[in-house]
Amino acid sequence: MSSTLGTSSRILARGGSLRVARSFLSHSYTGYRIPLTGSHGRNYASAAHVHQDSKTHSDPSETSKSADFVREYEPYCLTTYARPGLILSHGKGCHIWDVEGQKYLDFTAGIAVNALGHGDEELAKIYYEQSLKMIHTSNLYYNEWTGPLCKLLIERTLATKGMQSASRVFIANSGTEANEAALKFARKYGKLSPGGAQDKYEVVSFYNSFHGRTMGSLSATPNPKYQKPFGPMVPGFKYATYNDIDGLDIITKNTCAVIIEPIQGEGGVNFATPEFMTAVRKKCDQVDAVLIFDEIQSGLGRSGYLWAHEAFPAEAQPDILTMAKALGNGIPIGAAMVSERIAEAIKIGDHGTTFGGNPLATRVAHYVVDKLSTPTFLDQVKHKGEIFRSGLERLKEKYASVITEIRGTGLIWGIQLNRDPNPIVDAARLRGLLVITAGNNTVRIVPPLVVTEQEILEGIEILNSAFASL
Length: 470
What we know:
Layout: H1 2-13, E1 26-29, E2 32-35, H2 65-73, E3 88-92, E4 95-98, E5 103-106, H3 109-112, H4 121-133, H5 146-158, E6 166-172, H6 175-192, E7 202-206, H7 215-219, H8 224-227, E8 237-240, E9 255-260, E10 263-264, E11 270-271, H9 274-287, E12 290-294, E13 320-323, E14 334-339, H10 340-343, H11 359-372, H12 375-398, E15 403-409, E16 412-417, H13 422-429, E17 433-434, E18 436-438, E19 442-445, H14 453-468
Parallel strand pairs: 5-17, 7-8, 7-9, 9-12, 12-13
Antiparallel strand pairs: 1-2, 3-4, 4-5, 6-14, 10-11, 13-14, 15-16, 16-19, 18-19
Helix pairs in contact: 1-12, 1-14, 4-11, 5-11, 12-14, 13-14
């Protein structure tokens, strides 16, 4: 590793000094940015203000085929996302191409989804073979892959330092649905638990968390930007401060569940402390509340462990573990893993799903879990994480007037800025690197877990150029 880090150091030694950021005529959203010009607010020559030195890419012009495509089809699509004008066409490994033929290094992985990258040939074979055989049957019948996936998830989890009470798995279609299932299971358990009653339905979550967009998971996401347009929220949700042990008195005998992310991804790549997670577990035990770990973004190898909570003490483990994103490498699937005491509270008819557990998604997920959970693969993620750490810390030293903190582990990283991060996202894109934002002024880096050391160094060099361009 030392020679690799030396290379990183030499790369980062190049590049110009930081210049004052120029003004941007844009409206910002978490993860996206759209200029306030052009048709429907879009400007296909966006970010033209970015310093010209070392620019290698350009956003599509108004006369490009990308612009023609958007103009033709955008009127038929409900506008809920703000996007730059490029249209992505295909990918291979850690690279993506747009329809104009430009190649990008992808440090977004579809927001931490494409753990095995783009165009995995073995996965393509599985898609093809299973689609010819059977895609969907419904949960009125058993199929050949849901059971094996559940068994694999339990066995690989028990082989780690993670959730040692893991017993059964419910398969859903997405992360928010996995969390909805977890919240329903917890409320059912709360009403049946010793000392439980109709008043034991409250759920505690934490500020800066993100648990999904459906109404239950949205109610657990205390962000006014997400909640206010759709209020009132589902009753019974209370909010505490992440890593504040003194604030845990909010968990009472009426609390049926506490839901928490070991690593807050959307919230800015924030890490729970071992002491805090241990205190949360202890408090849940005192009032017989269900502890839910949302590992939708942090799980399945992203942290360098199969589950991020493996880094916590043995006494800080969940009763329910939710997952999605990397589970299907792009095929929609989510899951809630539960302990036996939670499973005993759930009866036939309590919950269901039409598409969840279909043979195509579960066969794909079986392959993905098998790949991501091998010790060699996880060790490689840890190793690559240290390369990121070294390179990003050097960026922090070089651009100390802009970068205030580097947070991360494995292949989930946050670069905390003291200003709007969207100019950096734009500048990186115009140099061939895709990154996204999170939390409050954070640049988020979540590349495919198959990213190579050379690609990491290339990405850090592009980030160096992006910061130098301002």
